[in-house]
Design goal:
- With 350 residues, the protein is of the alpha/beta class.
- The chain has helices at 19-26, 30-44, 88-101, 117-132, 146-154, 180-192, 209-220, 250-263, 280-288, 308-318, 337-348, and strands at 49-59, 105-110, 136-140, 159-161, 196-198, 201-203, 228-233, 268-271, 293-295, 299-300, 303-304, 321-322.
- Helix 4 crosses helix 11, helix 5 (146-154) crosses helix 6 (180-192) and helix 8 (250-263) runs parallel beside helix 9 (280-288).
- The longest helix is centred in the middle third of the chain and has 16 residues, at 117-132.
C-alpha cells in the first residue's frame, strides 16, 4: 500500500483508503494539494471541460425528515410554499429549456422520505420524457427499496442521487429521522439495480476536518465509486437550525474538492449548492482542484444559483467548455408492466 505521503499522486482507483491517508491529504500545503489534484484530474478527464446539470424540484416541501439544513422539512418555518408533484408535461417543458441552455443532465428532486408507488409511476413517465430529449436523467426521491430502484432503472433512469451529507460520526448532529445505514442501504439498492450513483455531502454544518475526511473516505471505499460526487457548501436558510452556522474558510472548501478528486479520480466532482455565494475566483480554484461538473440554472431545488448568463461569462473567462450533449437514445427504456399501464391514470387523478 502507498504511504500517506504518496497517496493521491498516481490517480489509481482504490477502495482501501485509511483515515490517516485521507487526513494526510487534507494536511498537505495548499499548492501541493492542488497540483496533485489537477494532475490526477487530467489523467482521467478531458481538461477544461465541465458537465452541466440542471436540477428541478418536482415536488416541494412537507418532508417529514428533520435534516437541520433543509428548508423543505415540515418541522421548520422557512416560508417555503408546498407544491404537489408536477405534471409530466411541465417537467418536459423544463427539460427542453435546460437542454437549450446547455445542460446535458436533467435532475428531478422531490421532498420525500421515500416515494409512494403512485408518485413513482408518474415519475417514471417524467424520466422517459427527459431521456427522449437526449438528456441524461437523474432523480433524488429519498430512500428507495430494491424494487423501487429496479423500477426506476426499467423506466430509463441514469443516475440516482442520495447524499451521505457528512461522516457517520457527525451524522446524528444533523439528522435523527433516518440512520446513516438507511442511506447506505439505499445506495446499495441503487447500485444493485444497475443505476449510476450520485452521492456527496455538505460542507459547513459545524463538522470537523476529520468528519470531511471520513465522509470522502466512506465514499471512496464503497465497492464502486459514485459516478458523481456533489460537494455542497451549506446554504444558510432562515428558519432552519443551521441558519446561523459557522462560516467555512474558502480554502478549506477547495481542499475538500481536491481530496475528493484524489480519492475518486474517475468520478465527476460537482461544485454544487452554495455557488450563488461564491466569488468567481473561488469557483476557479474549485475547477483547478478537480471539480468538473456544476448545477446550471437559476435555482437549486429551493435555493439560489448563478444564472445561465453569469456561468457562460465565467466559462468564457476561464476557457472552460461544457461537456457535449449526447445523442438521443435510440430506444426508449424497457416498458414497465404496471407503471406504463397506470401512469396516465395516476396523472389524471391528481
Amino acid at each position: 500500500m502507498q504511504t500517506a505521503h504518496e497517496s493521491g499522486t498516481t490517480g489509481s482507483v482504490r477502495h482501501d483508503w485509511s483515515l490517516t491517508e485521507a487526513q494526510a491529504l487534507f494536511a498537505l500545503p495548499f499548492m501541493d494539494l492542488l497540483l496533485r489534484a489537477q494532475q490526477v484530474h487530467r489523467a482521467h478527464h478531458e481538461p477544461n471541460t465541465v458537465q452541466m446539470s440542471t436540477l428541478l424540484s418536482i415536488k416541494t416541501g412537507a418532508c417529514p425528515e428533520d435534516c437541520a439544513y433543509c428548508p423543505q422539512s415540515v418541522r421548520y418555518e422557512t416560508g417555503l410554499d408546498r407544491e404537489a408533484l408536477m405534471d409530466v408535461a411541465a417537467v418536459r417543458a423544463s427539460a427542453v429549456r435546460a437542454r437549450a441552455a446547455g445542460a446535458t443532465r436533467f435532475c428531478m428532486g422531490a421532498a420525500y422520505r421515500s416515494p409512494k408507488q403512485k408518485d413513482l409511476e408518474v415519475i417514471a413517465q417524467m424520466i422517459r420524457e427527459v431521456r427522449s430529449l437526449g438528456l441524461e436523467s437523474c432523480a433524488t426521491l429519498g430512500m428507495l427499496t430494491p424494487l423501487q430502484a429496479q423500477d426506476l432503472k426499467s423506466a430509463g433512469l441514469d443516475y440516482y442521487n442520495h447524499n451521505l451529507d457528512t461522516s457517520a460520526e457527525f451524522y446524528g448532529e444533523i439528522i435523527t429521522t433516518r440512520s446513516y445505514q438507511d442511506r447506505l442501504d439505499t445506495l446499495a439498492a441503487v447500485r444493485a439495480a444497475g443505476l449510476n450513483v450520485c452521492c456527496g455531502g455538505i460542507i459547513g454544518m459545524g463538522e470537523s476536518v476529520t468528519d470531511r475526511a471520513q465522509l470522502l473516505r466512506t465514499l471512496a471505499n464503497l465497492p464502486a465509486h459514485p459516478e458523481s460526487v456533489p460537494i455542497n457548501r451549506l446554504v444558510k436558510v432562515p428558519g432552519t437550525p443551521l441558519a446561523n452556522g459557522p462560516e467555512v474558510d474558502p480554502f478549506d472548501f477547495v481542499r475538500t474538492i481536491a481530496v475528493a478528486r484524489l480519492l475518486m479520480p474517475c468520478a465527476h466532482v460537482r461544485l454544487s449548492a452554495g455557488r450563488d455565494e461564491m466569488s468567481d475566483e473561488l469557483q476557479a480554484l474549485c475547477f483547478l482542484a478537480g471539480a468538473n461538473s456544476i448545477f446550471y440554472g437559476e435555482k437549486l431545488l429551493t435555493t439560489g444559483n448563478p444564472d445561465v448568463a453569469a456561468d457562460r461569462d465565467l466559462f468564457a473567462r476561464l476557457g472552460l467548455k461544457p461537456e457535449a450533449l449526447k445523442a438521443a437514445p435510440h430506444d426508449a427504456a424497457a416498458p414497465l408492466t404496471a407503471i406504463t399501464a397506470t401512469a396516465a391514470a395516476a396523472t389524471a387523478a391528481r
